[in-house]
Structures are given as C-alpha cells and as structure tokens.
Structures
1.
Amino acid sequence: MARQRKFWGWGYEDFPLSSGMLENYTDMLKFSLGIKEFEDIPEPQIENLNLKEPRFSIPSELASICSAEVFDRASHTYGKSFRDVWRGLMGRFDHSPDYVAFPKTETEILALMRFCSAENISLIPFGGGSSVVGGVEPSKSEKYKGTISLDMRHFDQILEVDKASRSVRVQAGIFGPALEQGLKAHGLSLRHYPQSFEFSTVGGWIVTRSGGHFATLYTHIDEFVQSVRMVSPSGIMQTRKLPGSGAGPSEERLLCGSEGIFGVITEAWLRVQDMPTYKEAQTVSFDSFEKGVEACRQIAQSGLNPSNARLVSPLEALSNGLGKGTDTVLILGFESHDHELGKWMERALEICKALGGYWKVKEKRAEGPRDKAADAWKKSFLQAPYMRDELIKMGMIVETFETAITWDQFDAFHKGVESATQAALKEHCGGGIVTVRFTHLYPDGPAPYYTVIAKGEKGRQLEQWDLVKKAASDAIIKYGGTITHHHAVGKDHQPFYEKQHSSAFKTVLKNIKKGFDPAGILNPGVLLKEEDLD
Amino acid sequence: MARQRKFWGWGYEDFPLSSGMLENYTDMLKFSLGIKEFEDIPEPQIENLNLKEPRFSIPSELASICSAEVFDRASHTYGKSFRDVWRGLMGRFDHSPDYVAFPKTETEILALMRFCSAENISLIPFGGGSSVVGGVEPSKSEKYKGTISLDMRHFDQILEVDKASRSVRVQAGIFGPALEQGLKAHGLSLRHYPQSFEFSTVGGWIVTRSGGHFATLYTHIDEFVQSVRMVSPSGIMQTRKLPGSGAGPSEERLLCGSEGIFGVITEAWLRVQDMPTYKEAQTVSFDSFEKGVEACRQIAQSGLNPSNARLVSPLEALSNGLGKGTDTVLILGFESHDHELGKWMERALEICKALGGYWKVKEKRAEGPRDKAADAWKKSFLQAPYMRDELIKMGMIVETFETAITWDQFDAFHKGVESATQAALKEHCGGGIVTVRFTHLYPDGPAPYYTVIAKGEKGRQLEQWDLVKKAASDAIIKYGGTITHHHAVGKDHQPFYEKQHSSAFKTVLKNIKKGFDPAGILNPGVLLKEEDLD
C-alpha cells in the first residue's frame, strides 16, 4: 500500500525527522525567544471532520472520475503554507471543494470544463498541492455554485526522450521523484529541486514559475520549458518544440506563471541536463553580512555562474547547523558533466578572499570532494517542511516569504523589510525572529528569502501571522521588490501583486483570461480578484 | 552636417566598401553562377520621386512634430530587406506614409495616438527602420484613412546608470553606437550587436526580439530587458525594475516581440556588462559540415557558454574571406572582465579535436591574441548590408532568412529547407546559391542562418524572390522550425507565423491588442492580419 499523505500538512504521515533535529531547534527557540512552554495542538482526525454536503450533483458521464470522499476533499482544501497547516490542524475545512476530479485524458478535462462553465462551478487545477500562497484554495464566494478540484495525478508519464537535444516530453502531473527516476535511466536529470520537489508536479512548477536548484542562470523552471500544451475551456493551446525563437511574444513565457487561470497544463517538453560528474563545493564564512552580500554581487557578475551560491545570515546558519551564529555563510558549488571545475571555484574563492572570506581546506576524497556544511544544509532544506508542521503543532508561527531586488536597492530594501517585519512581530506577537538567506543570484540583484518564527497565542496564530505578513508584504512593495520570486501569487499575494504592476497589465490578464475561460470558472481569485472577472 | 542616410537602402550615402571586397565577391559569383554580365540599376533620385499627396490633414497641435517632406516620407516607406531595397531602387514609393511624426515627449505620442484612433489612421512605430520583414511598412488597405510613421529618434538619452546592478535606464529611440558611446564612459557595454547595430534602436531591438553578439545564453535582447515602459492608446504600461520575479506571467516577455502592435516602447532598464578584458579566440576547421555541427552540439551542451560560436559552411566561409571553400569553419570566442579563459577555450578545443577539428596555433601578442579569421568575419559582417545594396543594383537577388530547430531534427530540417530553397531557385531563377551558418547555439538546438543569392531577371527580381522565399518559409514550417529566430515576424512572415502557433494564441494576441489599442490603428498587418483586427 502506498504511504499515506497527511490531509492537513506536509508529506507522509509516518515520516521520521532526523533524531535531535527538532530538539536542537526548540532549544534554540527557548533560548532566543525566552519560551518556557509550548502548546501541544493535537493532529486532526479524518473521522472527526464534518464536511458540508456537496452543493451540486455530478452528471453521470463525469461520475467515475469525481470523488466526494472526505479524505480527498479535505486534502484538496488547502496548500501547504503556515495558514493552511494551521487551519488544517484546527479542523477548519468549511470551504473544501465539493468534489475532487481525477481525469485521465484531455477529453475528460474538457468535459469537466464544459460542465463547470455551463453550471458556474469553479474549477481549480491541482498538481501536488504544495502552494504556499493560497493557489489551490476554493472560492468562498456565493457567486459560484461550488468547486471542483482538478487533480492531475494520472498525467504522470514520461512520453518521449530526445537525447540529442537533451529534451523530454512529459505529462504535467508527474511528481519530482518519478520524473528524476525516469530520467536517470537515460543518464539525464532536470536538476530542478524546489523545496516542494517530493510533492509537486511539472505542471505546478510551470504555472507557478518555481525556483529550483540552480542559484544562477536557470533559476526558474521557465528556462527549462521548451514547449507547453494547455487545455482551456476554449480549446487546446500547443506551442512548438524549439530551442529558441523570435516570433512574437514568447508563448511559453505567457503560460509560465499563469497559475491555472487560463487553463490546465497537460504536457510539456522540458530541457534537461546530463548528470553532473564533476563537482566542486566550498563553504565560505564572512565576519559580516555586508561582505557576504558584496561577494555574492561580484560572483553573480563574474560570469562564473555557480550552480549553488546560497548566502545564509548568521542566525539562519545557526538554526540550520551551519556555524555558531556569528558568521555569515556562503555555500558555493559548481557542477558539470563535461569538465573539471577547479579553475571556476578557484576564481570564486579569490573573490571571497579579497572580501575577507575564509574557509577550511578540504581533503579530496575518492568519491569527490564533500562538504559537510553543504550536506547539513541539504538535509535541513528537505526536512524543513516536516519540521515546520511540528513547530506549528507547538503553537509556533513559522513561515517564509521571498522576493528579489536589484543590488543598488538591496541595503535599504533589506533594512526596510526586516525592520517592518520585526516591528510587526513585536506588535502582534510580542517579538520573534527574522532571518534571511539568498536563494538565487542574478547579475543585477539577489533573491532574498526570509524566515519568520514567533510564539503564537493560542487560537490566534492565523490572525497574528496575517498581520505580520501584511506588514512584510507592504514593505516589499514599498521598497521596490517583487511580492514573489518563486512562490507565486495565488490568492494571498494578489492584493500586493496588483500594486507592483500597471493597471494596463491587469487589463492584459483579464483580456487573455476572457479568451481562454469566458465563463471565468478557472481558479478564481488567483492573480486577478474575483470581482475582476465580472 | 550629419551624414546623409540613403532613403532607399542601407546606411550612409557616402560609405566606402573595403577595397576589393565587392570585386572578389562578384568574381566568385561569375565563377559559381556562370554570370557573364550584371545589370546596372541606377540609384533613385529624391527629386524624381512623385509621392501622392497626404490623404488627410494634421491638426494644428500636432503640426510642429509632423513632416510631409519627401525625404522623410520616402525613407519611412520601407525597412531594409531585399524586397525593400529593390522597390526603393525601382522608385516605387506608392504606399509611403502620409506624414512622419517626430515626437519629443510621451504626451505628444499619446496625442498622436488619440488623433489616429479618432480618425482611423494607422500609426507605425519606427526606430531605426532596419526591419527586414516588412515591420514598418504602411498598410495598403482602404480601411485606413492614411498612415503616420512615428519616428522615435528624439528619445535618444541615457537617463540613469546603476553601476552596482550594472543596469541603465535609456530612452528607447537611442541608436546602438550612441548607447555604446554613452556606456563606455562608465566602463560598461550592452554588448548587443545585431547586424543592424549602427542603424537600429533599443526600442526596435526589444519589440523585435533582436539577436545579438552572444552566441549562447544572452542570444536575444530579451535577456537584457530588466523593465520596460510602453505608451499605448489606452495608457502607459510600466514594469518594475527587478533582477528576477515569479509574480504572474513575465510582463517584459510579453512586450518583447510585440512589434509595435500594442504600443510604443519609450524607455527601458537594460542589464549591461563590464567591458571584457580577457579574450580568447580561435578558428577551427572541420573537413565535414556534420562534424562541425556535432562540435557545436557538444559545446552548446558543455556549459562552457562561449560568447562567440559561429559555424560557417564551406561556401559561406569562402565568400566571407575564411578559407578556401572546402572546410566548415567554427569561429570560437570567450570573453570576460573577471578571469582568464584559457581553461574554457582549452576544453572547447578538446571537444573540437575529438571530432577532427584542426587549427593554427597563434602567437600571443601584447594586445591579446588576435584572430585574423574572426577579424575578417567581423569586417564582412558589418559591411554585408552595404555590399548587399551594391549587389541588388547589379540585378542580383540577395537575401537571408533564419530560424531555429532542435538538434534531433536538424539534419532532416536542414536538408529539407536547403533543397526546397534550391529547387525554388532553380525553378524561378534558373539556379542560385544557398549557404548556411549558425548564429546562435542552445543546448537543445542551433539557430541556422541561410544566405541566398541568384541572378535576377530584369524587373522581375521581387516576384522571383517572393516565390523562393515562400518555398523556403513553407519548408521551415513543414520541418518544424520557427519562421524567425531574431528577424521578427512583421508583415512578411505573418502567414507563416500563424501556421506555427495555435489558433488559441492568435486569440490571445487579438485580445491583448484590443485592450491596448481598441481602434486597431497600431502597425496593422504585423503579427496579426489586418482582417483579424475587425
């Protein structure tokens, strides 16, 4: 039997956190936040959920692909943000979808779209359900008769492998691990590892412009999208398989980031990589954050294009098992299937050294150089969502937000965002911790990623977080950043997204949507307000 | 006094071709095409042009920015393709714009748009006028009262330099040389050199997705566009200055390639480069085209990312002063402001050597290694449009077309396109030459660039070329390529463009356009058919 996934939180029910990981972290929290006692919120039980009856009936021709099972409906009610997990823990599933559809063909998807359009039922494309921005959450509005969540899990095949062009055609519902396993047989890898990797899909990555493994050049899935096939209520859009083009505005880039409001991605050709055989890794410490930032800027502009370049602030480093909380840490990596990378790393380290960076010289080992700090980071990175759930059960408010900003603005931006968030934490939670890292680097600026943690007040955590999040988001917009670098917009970021683009672009989105989805049933409230669809 | 530009062809009236260049080329043509005698078409004289009277009057508030001078109208009638130059030489200016407007402010542009929208006059954004795809040509249709060409030459300033982020804000009407001269003062360079560099503008590059200097990674201007400002009849769209974002579909990518049908780009923030101080250059020969192609594929997939990697077929090499017409030549280059590139070139040459590539070892010189072949190529590249005009005056049909295709399809594609073009040349011109080079390389495929030359029949050259071009374009679409990699769509490629995208995408374009340009006056016939705007 397949392992059971939590209906209320991240991942598998039976996943064991690394021993001591949670204890170390809570010790740190006790110490730094002066916490004496944690809450102990019990996990919700599926048999206790009391979902509302579906508000409409499914026609017989769609009955076989639609489920009204409590587990299906509950686990398609939310994504995986703090807001989602907390509401799940509280057993709040009032706005669960009325049905979950599991189509196996495009014809079935089109039939669902026809039914929903005719009956005014909102239809929400659902990949892995790992959204942290309210991207898969049903409308609460009375204007729809109800909601169907459209789960793409049966679109899970690798359809074609073109080794000469290093490209693969895949169905969009395939999950990260299945994709990598299938590619491995051909010596290939997409090498796109969002933190959600295990429980997210290619289609989800494309429509949310997910951020992956590569710290430079191939920061988003966008770069790997060679062509796309999308089913919309108005028909199918298929783009041509091309390595590059200058014919009109990019069709693929229009669908990247469309978040299910135009249609459902069913297939894509992806650009993949050879498996890297040469790797260089080094962890560099700086005695000030500013020096680390400057090293990142110079490396980002050097043309060396490291695959890995994560700058971690002292406190965040500490909480991830990197260093003692005094140094800023830069995790640097290069990888290639084609050539030794000694020269690349040598030059990157020269840049660091000139700025006072220092590091331990490592022994070369038979299986290639390892970097314990980088390994610790990776382990911590993948387990983070599991640990987050545990912390939420302890009554903690724990969440991340992320952005991008040009180098010239970074100092003022970072100070502005950090202090606005700290002030809001102080006001609404009596204090808390804000840490930062850079997840991706561009020649013209970094993508800062903030982690927030605070002790919540019993039963009020959602309200508290929403106030802090609003303060942080307002600051991001005020100081010139983007409301999201790779988490997407969803419902949660929509009001801030609207502030960062021209009203002219809102008209563009509305006009495109009207063409694809004349009845306005697809993922309402995402990217555009529900009112905008009238 | 400023040098006078030709109103009928490329560049300055008084530009001198390098001595012997034309003679060598015509000797080659005589030999390979068996030409005994060339035509001698006289250049048209401005005083002999008999343009139609403007079909409407300009309101007094716009009078000071509009010209009905014959020279202005004539030089805004066409772009710079073979079709354009040939018609210019023949003195065919029947469909010249009624006026040319030279606005200095966005307010004036908006006033022009209001006037044209109210009066049903088509308005054509005009940068350098270097389109080779009918991108700036007035409508012949009766449905418009007339045409105004909107020349952006007064928007020619560098407005802001952000050295930390290596970004500059420029007005969109600035020409290539003025931009580079302005950047040089800051030690910066855009390093985007389309063949039209001297007579094209930033705004033109953006809306046509121009292809530049870099053979890999930064192949199109798209990569350098950080933010854009566009004036449309419905108002102004301004995107945020960001190094990267995941908020909704890319706003910049929607305007890249919009070819003036949504609005006029007035400003952009561009990502620029440090001036390179380290350069490696080498010219490698292969005894077969196939081996050269395979070397390109391996280099494109190696992650070395050369700045230059042009593969030139034997005959094309010969006509550009590279080699004896027996070898396929690969011009390879690396450049950096940050580090020595010996290791990079070493590895690229290893790849070539394993495929039988060979080269002359060069002496290192004080000013850095030079590469005579690369220099010859550069000289030939920049003078090519001038020489093309001379050849057209001699009655020759001479033109290029370009595309991109994935590696798995390349062999069949190239054979298909080349033989269809050859067959059409045989049928319509009694024969001719087709040569190829790769201008840009992607991990998943090359961008092949074809040059066609044939002896025309007096007075019939346009008709002959149109038949050949149609055959070539049909083959490009049939064998899976794109109708353009970096020349854009314009009016000329519109019927083929329509075949390469879904009808769903046509609806997208129409819906976006309706929002920006409700009266349908902007650059009609480009990207969309004029009928599509009804």
2.
Amino acid sequence: MRLAVDVMGGDHGPEELLQGVKVGLAADAALTKVFVVGPEAELRPLLERIQLTDPRVEIRHASEVLTMHDDPGIAIRRKKDSSVMRAIELVREGAADAVISSGNTGALYAGSTVRLGRLEGVKRATIACILPSKNGVWLLVDGGANPECTPEYLFQFGIMGSLYMKALLGIERPRVGVLSNGSEEGKGTDATRTTARWLKQTDLNCNGYCEGYDLFLDRIDVCVCDGFVGNIVLKSSESLGRAVRDMLHEELKTYHKPWRLLGAALAKGGLSRIRERMNPEVYGGAPLLGLNGCVIKIHGRASRTALGYAMHQARQIVNLQLSDSIVRELARWSTIPTMDAPVTTE
Amino acid sequence: MRLAVDVMGGDHGPEELLQGVKVGLAADAALTKVFVVGPEAELRPLLERIQLTDPRVEIRHASEVLTMHDDPGIAIRRKKDSSVMRAIELVREGAADAVISSGNTGALYAGSTVRLGRLEGVKRATIACILPSKNGVWLLVDGGANPECTPEYLFQFGIMGSLYMKALLGIERPRVGVLSNGSEEGKGTDATRTTARWLKQTDLNCNGYCEGYDLFLDRIDVCVCDGFVGNIVLKSSESLGRAVRDMLHEELKTYHKPWRLLGAALAKGGLSRIRERMNPEVYGGAPLLGLNGCVIKIHGRASRTALGYAMHQARQIVNLQLSDSIVRELARWSTIPTMDAPVTTE
C-alpha cells in the first residue's frame, strides 16, 4: 500500500504532518511507500531534524502551496505545481494508492474531481465523515464539499454512504436518513422531500427523514444532507465537544479544591475513555466517495496523531474496493430520479 | 404579572406541566395569576391530585388539543377551541401578559401570528433560543419557526436578536454573525451572502459570517440562520449533549470499578456544575420575537423544572419591553434591503 501525503496544508505546518507520517509508518507495517509532497528544500531539513529516516519515505517536490483563502477553482488552474495537485497526480499515475491532505477542502475536491474523474454515473463526489455517537459511529454525507445540492446528488450520497458504511463496519443494512427539521413527511425543503421519497423507493434501509436529535444517540447510520448543513453540523458538534472537554478539564483540575483533583484522578480511566471516544482526530480521515481513486481529507488542525490514524484508515478504505459496487448500485437505481418528478411545495 | 400556560402540549402530559406551574409559582412571588389552559374535566382532578391549591391558579377551559402531527395551518383554522389558541387568546384580550406552550411549534407560531399580529415593520416573527457556551450563552435566531427564509427575514432576525441579547444580558454590542459553512465572504448561499452584506451596513456589531465552530466557544452572541438549519443545530447539539451526559454517567458509575465511583463522588461538584451549565432545561424558554404580545415556546419534553424556569423567564422577557425598540430599529434600517439588491451567484 502506497500513500501520497500532502504535508503542506495543515494549520500546524509541515513538521507536525511529517511527525504524523512517522507515527503512521511505525504503526502500520503494510505501508510500503509514503510520498511526502511539498517544496523539497523545505521538507529535506525537516525530515533530518525529526529523524524520519524510514526508507519507505520519499519526497516529491511541489513548488507551490495552496492556502485556505485560495479560491478552489482558480487555484487548481493557476497553481498547477501545488502540493495537493502533485499528490493527486501520484494517484492518477498509479504511483500511489491513496492521497491524504489536510489543506483547502474545496481545492482537494475540485482538483481530484478534475484529475481523477468521477466514477461512471456519479453526479458529484461527496465527502463522507465518520462521527462518534453514544455507543458507536455514524456517517455524515456530505461533510462540506457540495454546499448546494440537487435531490439527485443527495440521492446518490445516500446510496454511496450506505455502501461505505456496510463495507467499512460490516453493518448489513445501514439506517439511512435525510436530515430535516422534523421527522414528518411535510417537513424540510423541496430538495429533502424529493430525496427522501426517492431513497424510500430503493432497497436501502431508509424510512425518509432523520433529525438532529437522532445523530449522536445511535439512531442512524448514514445521515444525508447538503454540504452547507453538513459543515455546520460537523463544526458545531466539534465546538460543543471542545467546550465540554474544556469545562471538564477546568472543573476537575481546580487546584484549590483538591478532592476534585483526587476525584478526577480516580475517575481518569472513565474520562479518558470518553475523551478518546469523542476525539474527532480518531475519526478524522474522510474519504471523497465517487471518484476514480482514493482521496482522504483530514482536518486542517490535524495533529501528528490524527495523520497517523488517517494513514491507517486510508489503507482500510483502499481495501474496501468500493468503486465497482458504487457504479453498480447507482446504475441499479438510476431510473428513480428520471421517472419521478421532484416534489414542489403545494 | 399574569401568565397563560397551555398545559396540554407536553410529551409528559398535563400532570407534569401542572407540577411545573406549582414549581414556578413557589419560586416567583411576582406572579399574580396563572391561567392553566386545557379541558377542565381533565385538569380539575389533576390539580386536586397534585394539591395545587394556590389561589393564583385559574383553569381556562379548552375542549381540543393539538398534537405534533397536526398541520399548523389547518389546526389553527379547524381546532378553534384548542388549548394553545385559548391560551393565546388570553394574551390578546389582555387577561394575561404572556403565554407559555410546549406544544406544536408551528401551530403556536402560526396561531400567535394570526391572533396577536406582528409588530409594525416585522416581516416574520422568529423563535429566539438561548444556548449555553463554554463560559456564557448565545442566541440562535431562528430556532425553527421559519424553515425557509428570505434575506430580509434573516436581516430582521439579526436586528431583533441583537436587541434581545442586549436587553436580556446587558451586553452593550452583541456580536452578530450569519451562520455559514466558512468565514470567507464567498461561502454560503445567496441568502446568507446577502444577509451578511446587509447586516454589515447597520451599526450592529456584525462582521458577516460565523461558523459552527464559533457557536459553543464564546465567539458569538447572536447566530442568524433559517429555521431549517436552526432546528438541526438545536437538536443535534441537544443529542450530542445527551450522549456525553449518558457516557459520563455510564463511565463513572461503573460499579465493578469502585475507584471510579469514588472518583465520581469526589468530582461530583464539578460534574454537576457542568451538567447544570449544559442543561437545556435551564435555557428552555424561547420567545417569539416580533409579535404584539409575549409568546414563549418550551420544549415538548419539558419537565416541571423546565416549566418552572420558563415561567420566571417569561416574567423577565415581558419586563424587557422590547416592542418599541424592535419597531424603531427595524424602521431605522428598513432602507438597506430596498436599496441594495440581493447578491446572486456569480
């Protein structure tokens, strides 16, 4: 298994991500090659400094770096020698099996769509994010790649999301729901109503809508929404999770109340289990589903640990070999949107 | 201060809400009258059973009850003798200063808009929900009343939300943000871009967008969004909060690991402080801003404690006397939407 890692896009700089490559390689002997992509003159001394001498590591030079402020459409045309485009290129050439990037999501999405192309029948690729729930995990599609979606895109996200969760976790019939502001059929928008009606006509395990209340309480496996809503759900839950973690930390490490400190120490196992369960880094690697090639987005704030996990996940995701089943299942249900006109508001 | 409480809409039934009236009355001597609205033959024996004999309580008979499945538009026309409509009527007549209901949000919103009317200049009333953040609180407008919004509605929600937070919490210049999938100007939808541009032209403390990541980390005071997104943010954060609470409970009450139990006991003060801070019931009373009269929505699952809090909040909100400032500020900025055409996608 060979990976291409764009080490230039992270908020913590390339050194942190190179440390992550070190973590990932140490944890996974099945990785045979990791291309680290970025300006060679910058990366070479960093590799030496952190003593990353693993022979599986190879620098691939890229002279340019995209920032979060680059417009994706313009960036992929004008900055052709960017680290993210070079990393994608390695997958296109067949030199790498998957690419991992923590950079500009829009550019990664646009660049990989243009360079790798979509699988047959796919209208839009989607970013599929795993999130923790009380006793398990659930999938958010789209996690932010497509802010505005037609019902047909959303319909396909549901199908691809279900296939992914089935393959990844072995759930026989993942519960699929279209995220709405209530469970009743009349709720939502024209797009959500149409999507829910279409998905109910497939053999997916879909009863129509799911609600915000279902997400973290093990009531759904695949939550379908556009990338505008998906981004907001993702980031607001991340901020709430962080607020609670910070509050726990402050309340339990109150040094002038030593019994709490003792309590925290005794309860430590439980608290760290929760912290670990709710840690977004563990779930950080989100694949773009629907492309000719494996592309994994990780968080801009990804730490070395997060990249280490993501490298392992990338290998898992490549091994799922989802492409054939995505093409087959999309073709199987492709007549539903054409035979059934979208719902419009009465 | 006189309140009308629709005791028929809650998931736990009227007895729980009558218990809540008891809690609220015991805690607040400034309440001079509480009308409990619902079928008299059902309420009278319940009052006796729970020994709610406070002379400030008066039953107002309503023969019908709306359910969550009633279509709001149809319900308010056909079920004229419903508890929620009778409760609103008491405010319209001037017999009560505010109405509290835990029933069908759509019916409460539609019914109070029709019966009380909107304040001058208000395009749509909005439901304003207070939520906890790491060290404080923030306001979500709209919390679910208006699933589809024009930029003009959203613009007015920002102005009304800012006035509410200023009056309620004494924040001189509340930070107002339009919720989007990123902070850059080009992000979002046509509606969010237009709204952000308009709000920046007022003297509100608004820099344009806020993101999901800002919400629970004290980075925003007023978050403006449509009710579709607002409902999802509200319910998903509630479900995440509950998942974390349940996990804490399970991890720390692991009886075969007694040291964790001891730890939990020692850390209890800290944990309950967090539980209290994050308890949605404390923030449960959400006013409909923009109406000729004070209407407070509480959660369908509201317990007696939640209603008790909401009764106290209702009194606070009535005392803010926001109507004049809402009418004045909306008039002051009313030319912005008419002079500045909505942004359309380039």
